[in-house]
Design goal:
Length: about 55
């Protein structure tokens, strides 16, 4: 699964880790995150993330 980076603050969403603070289980692909997912560091939405190359 691909990692995604926040283009505002450079936080990386790693699907192997998920985001336990937001209730996102490890193994959750970025595409499967809820529409209201926000960056835990700066608070922007999914549209501000890009796939890590």
């Amino acid at each position: 699964m691909d990692k995604y980076i926040c283009t505002v603050c450079d936080w990386i969403y790693d699907p192997a880790v998920g985001d336990p603070d937001q209730g996102i289980a490890p193994g959750t692909a970025f595409e499967d995150l809820p529409d209201d997912f926000v960056c835990p560091v700066c608070g922007v939405g999914k549209s501000e993330f890009e796939k890590v190359k």
